[in-house]
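Give me structure tokens for this 390-residue protein.
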Amino acid sequence: MIDVDASVPGPHRLRGLVDVVLAVVAILPGLISILVEGSSPALTVGLLLLAAVTLCARQRVPWTVLAVVAVLAAIGEGQSFTLALCLAVYTVARRSTTGRAALGYLLAVGVPLLGTTVKIMLGVAVTATDDIIPAIGVGTSVVDPYVVLACAAGIVVQNTLQRRRAQEALLQQKIDSARATERTRITAEMHDVVGHALTVMISLANGARSAWDTDPERSRQALAHLGEVGATALDDMHRTLRVLRDSDDQLDDALHHSGYDLPDIGSMVEVFHAAGMPVHLRQRGDALPESTMLRAAVHRIVQECLTNVLRYAQGATFVLVTIECSARTGIVAIDVEDDGRSTGAGSIGTGRGLIGVSERAASFGGTCVYGPRTPGGWAVRTTLRTEKSR
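Here you go.
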């Protein structure tokens, strides 16, 4: 059981505390004005306190709170409730459409105006500031600048939140699309791994069978290799399937677009060098394990990082690719660094490439960290874990 310190306010308790503080602040100008002028203090002070209590519930029932505060303003002195009505109108506008926010504004100024009119018709004494003519003061005019500003602020905040939610939904859609694309690519590569492994296994099985009588030792070696190839292929398949949590009906159409007939890392780096990139390759530590999936992942990660440098790193004077493999720890580290400058606001792209790199790293139990480097440029560090380290 997890113990929670009751003295530390949670988000709901903190929000409730903020609502109480805002409610008190909203009635303070009215209270000060009434106490200084001394006009009908008992009634108006009581109405203001009731308005403060009502405002504490504005997040749950904003329209009800607005209606109650408007009625209280109509009964009491309208100008004393200006800030309280502004807070209620802002809450309604922030949580409604523009049209409904306009209705909320009309309710906030219409009801107090109606109350002031009724008072005058009944001959009830009103203060000089509560006349039907002045342009400022709730209860005295259809156009109240303070309530207008509160309503406009609520509309602006609501529109900003809507745009932010739309941008977040679009970003999530791009991320999901990038993940689906990368999973399709990884699955296509798994298809090639399985095909390669089955071909080798069939060849080894045929060799072991033909040499069973004439060369038993050779047959035993072939069978041993057969088991190793089968175990490796099965492990690669399980690793990929862990990444592909969702089925893809379009997968078969993309299987032929991938393959493991990849050039070595040095040859690929030379291609980028020929394209004008000042790239250097540094390989340290032990040789990469004989894992088709792992070698393909390293190749694709380096390829994606160098492609990003070629696209987005302007004026790069050096690009360094470092691949370090440790047979003792079973970790392969891939670092790609450059000193280029960003080509502009649109240089970030969709981020699909780095998402794909992260997906590949995760499929091998590794990580991918990227960002600006000091004093300038960009760096991507990816770690992959071989079977030994997991």
